[in-house]
Amino acid sequence: MVKSGPADWTAGEVPVFGGRLAYHRTGGKGPPLILSHGLTDNGLCWTRLARALEADFDIIMLDARGHGASSGVGPGDVVDPVRDLAEAVEALGLTRVLVMGHSVGARASAGYAAAFPDRVRALVLEDPPLVLPMTPEARERRLQAFREQVARFRSMTEAELRAFGMRQSPSWDPIEFPAWAASKRQVDAEALPLLNSAWQEDFRSLQSPTLLIHGESKRGSMVAPEQAREALELNPNLRAVRIPGAGHNVRRENLADVLLAVRSFLAAV
User: Fold this and answer.
1) 45 and 51 Cβ atoms separated by less than 8 Å
2) I need a labelling partner for 127 at 20 to 30 A (CA). Which of 21, 34, 215, 255 fits?
3) Would you state the pLDDT for residue 2?
4) According to the model, what pLDDT value does residue 197 have?
5) Which run of H or of E encompasses 100?
6) φ, ψ for residue 169 (rounded to 5)?
């Protein structure tokens, strides 16, 4: 069962290879906008941004595999977020979509746009992890740390998670925490996706207009200034906006400036 979102949104599921992805949809009259969340979040973690944009777009918020109400991930399963995204968009019967992703969801969105350039009208990337591919040893250490993190989340009630989140991120709007806390108890311990390819490969191949939104490194952004410059040099279709006062969770920490950048960018494509 897909966990309910706002009453005026619909919820459903679409088949993908070996499973299904759950989603919430605003059903607006504007062009379709696919939102892909970051690690340990779920689709409803986009609620605040989606509410702000739903008058102008038909917004589809996917739960990634191993997250939210989507199919789980077992030990040894290989998660391919790009294929999942491609199959979900096709199952929804959509063409020439707008795509926005956060963190690993941004990496998946970039991979999708690079692999299927004819299907993507424009792309927005919120603080993707522009990191080097991990060695097998480093990945195993990261996976073990992730499993321990998930175990800690699952040992807490949603109320305890909300309180923890508010202590950890006091600048966030309170509306962020219900979905954030719920998502932490839904994520699978094996849901950490592989980032085996260099981010430069996908960025170089992007053909659609692309907006890279990132925060400040000192606040935790995963896009350093030199990486933003490299991204711009790799692809003339890309523009970058640094959002002040924000770290990795850019929209949660400065939604006003993110909305200004996104609206301006999408109005021009």
Assistant:
1) no
2) 21
3) 46
4) 84
5) strand 97-102
6) -130, 70
Helix (H) or strand (E) run with residue 82 in it: helix 81-91
Per the confidence metrics, is the pTM higher than 0.90? yes
| Spatial contact of 54 and 26, defined as CB atoms under 8 Å apart | yes
CA distance 133 to 196: 5
Taking alpha carbons only, the member of 35, 67, 69 closest to residue 52 is 35
CB 39 within 8 A of CB 66: no
Measured CA to CA, the distance from residue 41 to residue 64 in angstroms comes to: 9
Residue 83 CB-half CA count within 13 A: 11
DSSP 27-70: --SS-EEEEE--TT--GGGGHHHHHHHTTTSEEEEEPPTTSTTS
- Contact indicator for 101, 36 with CB cutoff of 8 Å: yes
Residues of the chain with pLDDT under 70: 1-4
Question: Is residue 250 within 8 Å of residue 127, measured between CB atoms?
Answer: yes
Fold of 10-132+197-267: Rossmann fold (3.40.50)
- Here the tokens at position 123 are 């792309």
